[in-house]
């Protein structure tokens, strides 16, 4: 059955690779990207609609949601794939630390605003997370803005941990109404990811070590495609975090803390109300 699938971060990397596969299999794919030229290029290649939005500006996220709701009253899959690791600590125009906003707060907002269409489509909502959640994530609910002891990898790990917790709470709140939430780690993908940081991860993604540690965007997109096409409860377990098509077993205590997930949800919603 053909699905209406929204992919953020769809102009490059695993988002673009997943879009190519899903379009080839007959799905109605809509691409969202930050770069007008890159997003238009992949959309033209695939003959699909596209939208441009910078998640570092919440007004653009709200406009994106309005435009998508008008065009697509029923959405079957939302792939929250946009994100990245940044360099020095930077504050957005909305007053939030940029890693936290782009990777967690903006997708949280977009998902919330699209909920009428997602409910109508009994949607699967996919979060592109990362092993960085376990390796670097030490999320402090009272310091989501990473003001204390900032480091790029720590901020990124915290944001990816937030993605996993968001998935769990999303499933808890909306699962009974037909929504499915799931998260996955795509691997270290050879793409433009980490191009904006001076951290050692840039050397892994773009330096001589690239061939040793990275996978192709096509390989990295495998799970996104699998989850987008899969049947919740049969192909995968709703509310879970996957690595290599298996529920991750090497996880931190924070990654399975329902109370923490609820606190993060309430804090995120409060921050967005303040940003209105």
Cross-sheet strand order for the largest sheet: 3-2-1-4-5-6-7-8
In the predicted model, the low-confidence regions spanning at least 5 consecutive residues are none
**Number of structural domains:** 1
Q: Which bin fits the share of residues in helices?
A: 40-55%
Please write the string of helix (H) and strand (E) elements: EHEHEHEHHEHHEHHHHEEH
Give the mean pLDDT. 92
Assign an overall shape.
globular
Span of the ends, CA to CA: 38 Å
Radius of gyration: 17 Å
Characterise this structure.
The chain has an 8-stranded mixed sheet with strand order 3-2-1-4-5-6-7-8, with helices on both faces. The longest helix is centred in the middle third of the chain and has 23 residues, at 152-174. Helix 3 (58-71) packs parallel to helix 4 (98-113). The chain is an alpha/beta fold and 276 residues long. The protein has helices spanning 13-24, 36-46, 58-71, 98-113, 115-120, 132-135, 152-174, 200-206, 210-213, 217-220, 222-229, 258-275, and strands at residues 4-8, 28-33, 50-52, 77-80, 124-128, 180-185, 241-243, 246-247. It has one domain (4-187, 216-275): Rossmann fold, CATH 3.40.50. A hairpin with a 2-residue loop joins strand 7 and strand 8 (246-247).
């Amino acid at each position: 059955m053909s699905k209406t699938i929204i992919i953020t971060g769809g102009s490059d990397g695993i988002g673009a690779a997943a879009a190519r596969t899903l379009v080839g299999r007959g799905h109605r794919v809509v691409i969202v990207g930050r770069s007008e030229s890159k997003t238009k290029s992949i959309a033209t290649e695939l003959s699909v609609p596209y939208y441009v939005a910078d998640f570092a500006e919440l007004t653009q996220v709200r406009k994106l949601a309005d435009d998508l709701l008008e065009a697509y009253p029923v959405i079957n899959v939302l792939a929250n794939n946009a994100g990245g690791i940044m360099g020095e600590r930077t504050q957005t125009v909305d007053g939030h630390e940029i890693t936290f906003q782009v990777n967690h707060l903006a997708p949280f907002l977009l998902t919330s605003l699209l909920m009428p269409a997602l409910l109508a489509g009994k949607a699967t909502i996919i979060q592109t997370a990362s092993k960085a959640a376990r390796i670097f994530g030490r999320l402090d609910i009272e310091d989501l803005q990473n003001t204390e002891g900032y480091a790029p990898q720590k901020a990124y790990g915290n944001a990816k941990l937030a993605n996993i917790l968001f998935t769990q709470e999303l499933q808890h709140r909306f699962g009974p109404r037909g929504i499915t939430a799931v998260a996955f780690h795509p691997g270290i993908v050879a793409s433009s990811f980490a191009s904006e940081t001076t951290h050692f991860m840039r050397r892994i993604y773009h330096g001589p070590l690239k061939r040793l540690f990275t996978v192709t965007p096509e390989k990295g997109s495998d799970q996104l495609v699998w989850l987008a096409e899969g049947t919740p409860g049969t192909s995968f377990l709703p509310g879970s975090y996957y690595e290599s098509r298996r529920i991750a077993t090497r996880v931190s205590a924070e990654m399975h803390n329902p109370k923490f997930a609820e606190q993060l949800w309430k804090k995120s919603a409060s921050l967005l109300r303040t940003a209105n």
